Amino acid sequence: MDAFAVAIGIGLTFAKSNIKKALIVGLYFGFFQGVMPLIGYVVGMRFAEHVTAFSHWIAFGLLGFLGVKMIVSSLKKEKCADRVCAAEPCSDRVCPKDSKETTLGPKQMIPLALATSIDALAVGVSFAFLYVRIVPAVSLIGAITFVISTVGVGIGNIFGSKFKSRAAFAGGVLLILMGLWILIEQLILPML
User: How many CB atoms neighbour CB 53 within 10 A?
Assistant: First the structure.
């Protein structure tokens, strides 16, 4: 959801979006969102046998922390609420003449993709503790992120930032619910 929110922000900067731009954003975000949990999984597997007794608490803590972080960031007011612009101040979708659209080169996109996927590294560590089948998981994460990021660019270009904070809020709630489900599955369901 954070990649979706950033993709919407990128779409806001385009005077006119096209499918090529949306696919480039989707590929960057989808790739990094798929690779980072894999890295976290590999690192986590080295330590999984030592912490299996409390791994559900680690997973809950990581997912809860990330969820709360996303919710808090979704509630913050942005300086320019209706679109992202390279120049300030701004009050509408028309950027001042000296500002530019977001460029989609590696110098700009890799830091964005890394920033939005760093939490996926922590999720990958959680996957190691839960013994998740990692290849299907990271493939699904990467594919879904690709699709929603591609769509997010179009939504941002068409609808503005109306959905940006809602998407981040929903993503945060989902992460917290996933963490709670892990606790329920490990602590309550075995007693039933």
Answer: 7
pTM of the shown model = 0.62
Q: Cis before residue 106, ω within 30 degrees of 0?
A: no
Distance between CA atoms of residues 29 and 1, nearest Å = 11
* DSSP character at residue 18: -
How many Cα atoms within 13 Å fall on the side-chain side of residue 24? 16
Query: What is the amino acid identity at position 25?
Result: V
Query: 19-75: per-residue pLDDT in tens?
Result: 998 999 999 999 999 999 999 898 888 876 676 667 678 778 877 887 787 788 778
Query: How far is Cα 123 from Cα 64, in angstroms, rounded to an integer?
Result: 11
Tally of CA atoms within 13 A in the half-sphere of 134 that contains its CB: 23
Q: Residue 84 corresponds to which tokens in the numbers above?
A: 């992202």
* Residue 134 to residue 43: CA distance in whole angstroms: 13
> What pLDDT digit, counting tens, does each position of 133-168 carry?
999 999 999 999 999 999 988 887 777 555 666 766
The total number of residues written for the chain in this structure: 192
CA–CA dist 118, 3 (Å, integer): 11
